[in-house]
Amino acid sequence: MGVPPVEDEYRLRLEGRAALLEPSRERYYRLVLMLAESRWQERLRGERPLLREVAAHQEALDAMLGPALRRAEAEAWPTSNPTVRCLFEVHSLREQLARDVARKLGRSAREPLGSLMSALEDWLLTIPRVVPPHLRWSTALEVLPDTLPALREASAFGTLLESLFAHPILLTGRIPLTSAQREQLRQRWAKGEAALASLWNRLSGVDANRGIVTELQRVATRAPSHPPRNGPERLVHAEYWHQEAWARVRQLVEVRLAPIQLEPDEYLKVFWWLLEREYAPRVRLLASDSLADARAGLIEVAYELWDAQRPDIPEDERWTAARWARLEEQAWRADEDRGGADSERVRAVFRELIQKQGIGTAFLRGWKDSSHLVKWVQQARELIR
């Protein structure tokens, strides 16, 4: 009868986790050699599955490696033993790999190796290069993996915009968004736009000729025909609905504030205010670095004039005492700066309103022109009430 083989006692002491060592040593060794080559970027770009393999196993290996090394040193395990030797080799290769990758990326070797591997793969994907037309789509698929945080943010943003703006919205009625939808839109907008900008910049940085960006932006001008299934389609979907939402926002704002002509950086601030103002009349449009207090008052006056003359509200809601009080308060704000074409346009709306309402009355004979908007409000109130 033969004698059964004696098991490696140090392998037993690792309690079943020794199986992690040999594959890790092989992976580390291959990567260390490739990083030392002159054309290491090209080699590694073709070995991205190996990088993912290291990242996938790194947490379990690190959990085993630290305690095992401490025990080996404390108990003076002999390096002549194959398992012990492999343990120390894995540790040495791991440290060298971390140093090499950190140096290539300009990062700290103390970062988790799994994170360094993921960062290395991402860096390899985004190295600037000339992408031939026939490789644009496959390159976009590589550069925009579903695991990319910015892509997940942009995709969620596009899905939200589609749910809110896929159906027609009447320009004259209340903006039909619930309180929850309004809050969700405000929370998502800035992060969604930042994510989209980040993704387009990522693609631009990869393709020196911008062929990928040009092609995807052209696709993004057409309504998606099916739900997005991959990174490029998620980007295109989000970009299309972002442009659609912006167009709708501009329409909703412009129809309410005619004849004021907003600056591009005013639209969004005014839109957020309108979302609240249409359901809470006392909500004020606050001044900011990009919006002077007098202009905010002028915008509010223009909105009140539009709101009072909407065709879809009852007569008793048009010129209420509360509206006149708001108009006078807002006109005082606007009169802090009476210059500019927009101020004159708003006064022209009052002039037309007074002339229309005053037909056939003696009021027009005592009516006076004024550069003060508050005087126009007072005259209109005296006539209409």
Topology record:
Layout lengths: L8 H5 L7 H15 L4 H6 L2 H27 L7 H24 L7 H13 L10 H8 L5 H17 L13 H28 L4 H9 L11 H27 L9 H11 L15 H16 L12 H14 L6 H17 L5 H4 L6 H12 L1
Can you tell me about this structure?
The protein is mainly alpha-helical and 385 residues long. Helices cover 66% and strands 0% of the residues. The chain has 17 helices and no strands. It has helices at 9-13, 21-35, 40-45, 48-74, 82-105, 113-125, 136-143, 149-165, 179-206, 211-219, 231-257, 267-277, 293-308, 321-334, 341-357, 363-366, 373-384. The longest helix is centred in the middle third of the chain and has 28 residues, at 179-206. It is elongated. The termini are far apart. Mean pLDDT is 91; it is low at 1-6.
Q: Roughly what is the average pLDDT, rounded to an integer? A: 91
According to DSSP, the number of beta strands is: 0
- Structural class designation: mainly alpha
Helix content: 55-70%
Q: What share of the residues does DSSP label as strand, in percent?
A: under 5%
Rg from C-alpha positions? 33 Å
Q: How far apart are the first and last residues' alpha carbons, in Å? A: 116 Å
What ranges have pLDDT less than 50 throughout 5 or more consecutive residues?
Answer: 1-6
Number of helices: 17
Largest sheet: none
| General form | elongated
Tell me the series of helices and strands, N- to C-terminal: HHHHHHHHHHHHHHHHH
